[in-house]
Amino acid sequence: MATPDKHSATDGAHAREPSFYTSKRGLMSWIITLDHKRLGMMYLAGTMFFFLIGGVAALTLRTELLTPELDLVTSATTYNKLFTVHGAVMVFLVIIPSVPAALGNFLLPLMLGAKDVAFPKLNLLSFWIYTLGACFFIYTLFAGSLDTGWTFYTPYSSNGGAQGTAVISATFGAFILGFSSILTGLNFLVTVHKMRAPGLTWNRLPLFVWAIYATAVIQILATPVLAITLMLLIIERTLNIGIFDPAMGGDPVLFQHFFWFYSHPAVYIMILPGFGIISELVAVHSRKHIFGYKAIALSSVAIAIISFLVWGHHMFVSGQSELAGVVFSFLTFAVAVPTAIKVFSWVATLYKGSIAFNTPMLYALAFLFTFTIGGLTGVFLGALSVDIHLHDTYFVVAHFHYVMMGGTIIAFIGGLHHWWPKMTGRMFNEAHGRWGCLIVFIGFNMTFFNQFIVGQQGMPRRYATYVPQFQLQHVLSTIGSYILGLGLFWTLFYLLRSLKTGAQATDNPYGGASLEWMTQSPPIEHNFHGQPRVDTDPYNFPQIDRSGGMDHH
Amino acid sequence: MSSAHGQSPKPPHAFFQHHYNTVEQQAGAAKLGMRAFLATEILMFSGLFLAYFIIRMFYPEMVLGSHELLSKTMGGINTVVLLTSSFTMAMAVRSAQVGNTKGIVINLYLTIACACIFMVVKYFEYTGKFENGIFPGKYFDYARASEYARAHGHELVGLPHIFFGIYFCMTGLHGVHVLVGIGVLIWILVRAKKGHFGPQYFTPVENVGLYWHIVDLVWIFLFPLLYLVK
After folding, report:
1. What tens digit of pLDDT does each residue of A490-518 get?
2. Measured between alpha carbons, how far is A442 from A346 in angstroms, rounded to an integer?
3. How many A×B Cβ pairs under 8 Å?
């Protein structure tokens, strides 16, 4: 076990103290809190709220697609606005902050044995910057005319084709959210470098920390480019300086290069923390040392590096040079290598493990299934000739939903269950959780799997109407999305209910060996009673196989 | 790394924050944080530099013709002023390290004065442009601008509004950084006057210094690229 040194003498035997929820009271104690755990919970509430908004938009547009004609929404423009709201909200307000800002904030200092992140005031600032950026997005919802898609492609977004002030307010909102993301990443990077407990060397960090670290590097290096890109877009729209708008002598494809130079790495900002969660879930709930610790840790860093070199695969049909296409295609395939290393290591960890089929583990297994489909179809799309056929079809929609929803969100929900007892001090109902996972899994696959097929058959993205021959598949998708929605609402319901009626959680209900389990549930304000010390790695579970499968050959 | 967590040889100073274990940990975190922040600054400007190079690649003659309208004298003065301010800033950090509070204050005053001179020169430069119809983007007055160019013996070619668009973006963003710099310089000046800094604790001075050097460095690249095109 990690940290036996002082924790048994301090935390274990210590009289229970009030948790961080009750140590201070009143609204102001939350608004100006410097406590990373409170900020994490506030981010959690924020992302969940926007998950609901983005989800309702998705269900509305799925309902519209029940029939080939326009009926629920009155015009194609309304449909465009709906998918823009869904995409922009889900990307900028939900997925990017979900794991790093909500779970990461709560867990990172605990896992490092620190009292807080390196810069608590900066952490508070980045939460309020997030809130400010979110306000711009909410304004955009009411201004109601953003129909560019979440990618804001020029010249449509720059020359007034998209009406009103919504493009500016949404872009400015994303610009502000970018600063929140940069500051959080910067804070976490410094925290991992400087705030580790004595004995917690780089090779003893939980893999969740490695994933958050790699994410922080991307946040710091990619997001500033988004900031300047969006700034240039706003300037182009207001002053027509002629950098992106062809009518003024600019180059619209330049915007795509700028945008994807951030937004492709951003895909890994979204998925890497999910990988980190899965590493924890798989190891803890199969009671077995993680297989290939260093390979998993360093593959996160490798993905972070390669992520900066593949943006052009979003632009295979944009008219970029053929040579560039070939190079980007090759580099895209290279991403599959570190990713596969992770998947194989997780499967090898499960092998001969003592697997507990509880809710967090079921989500981890669901992740292995859905993410692998998402990842492999990404290789299809990275192949030049195949992409020409599949570009801008539902195949792409299905692919990135398998990665973003089937990857990040599934991992996030799994992680939420895994750390729920630690975060809230309550156990959720295990049977309810398993049912929830099953419904989500069925609903998700039913929604998106046949979109691979309908996309391959030629159904284009972003259309409000379609030819009648695709109706059966669209109906299936829509029913699937209702099941998925039901599963998610059910999950929300029993999790909230557990706050009132759930059993009191013990400090370490799942027998984890990393530092966050060594303190009270929910933790005390200063996290630990003494300074924790670490003498082994976080996957040394007692009384079980510690070999990581290495002694079989 | 873990040695930093051991018993600190230095006693905690008045600004020690208690979520850190040692004074060195606090100073190290602050410096690493500042360096990471400066990396984001460089990347943010790099987007504009890239845009500049692409415009120059698309329209080399237009860039060459348009840049003649920028005042090399004013740009040159500003370069000297900023380089001087970087020197005085470095002297302020040095004074903090050796505990010379008077030295910090004097050098910070000099740095702030240079920053203000830079902004005043910039103000005259911008108004000079605006008076002759040289505005960014669609507000660019082609007739007045080419008249002004001819009066100075130059000829505008192609789409000069693009060059001036990127010129105002780059120097404008840099100017905003100078203004922020003046703000943080005043903040540490006030603290220095209160005697907050000495050999035990001078991280804020050092970090503001790093920021100021980056602002200076960006200008060192902006000046030749915009004013001295060949």
Report:
1. 999 999 999 999 999 999 999 999 999 99
2. 22
3. 121
Are the beta carbons of B162 and A243 separated by less than 8 Å?
yes
Considering only the beta carbons, identify the residue of A186, A199, A240 that sits closest to B2: A199
In the prediction, which pLDDT does A550 show?
Answer: 52
In tens, the pLDDT along A55-67 reads 999 999 999 999 9
Q: Tell the residue number behind the tokens 């800002």, with chain if given.
A: A101
Contact A228 B18 (CB under 8 A): no
Q: What are the angstrom distances between the C-alpha of A328 and each of A268, A322, B109, B215?
A: 17, 10, 51, 34
Could B165 and A116 be called an inter-chain contact, meaning their C-beta atoms sit closer than 8 Å? no
B93 lies in some domain: yes
Give how far Cα A105 sits from Cα of A34, A119, A419, A544, Å.
Answer: 11, 12, 13, 31
Contact A266, B190 (CB under 8 A): no
B103 at interface of A, judged by CB pairs closer than 8 A: no
Full domain range(s) for residue B75: 43-227
Would B94 be classed as within a structural domain? yes
Encoding tokens for residue A243? 């950098």
Does the domain made of A4-552 have the CATH classification 3.40.50.1580?
no
- Is residue B218 in a domain? yes
Amino acid, single-letter form, for residue B101: T
Percent of chain A, pLDDT > 70? Answer: 94
What CATH number does the domain containing B138 carry? 1.20.120.80
- Whether B29 sits inside 8 A of A119 (CB atoms) is yes
What tens digit of pLDDT does each residue of B179-198 get? 999 999 999 999 999 999 99
Nearest CB among A229, A239, A250 relative to B47 is that of A229
Is pLDDT of A2 > 50? no
Residues contacting B126, CB < 8 A, separation 6+:
none
Statement: residue B161 has pLDDT above 70: yes
Q: Which residue, among A269, A302, A307, A310, has the nearest Cα to A180 in the 3D structure?
A: A269
A292: left (phi over 0), alpha (psi -120 to 50) or beta: left
Q: From CA A283, how far away is CA A288, in angstroms rounded? A: 5
What is this model's ipTM?
Answer: 0.91
DSSP three-state, residue A11: helix
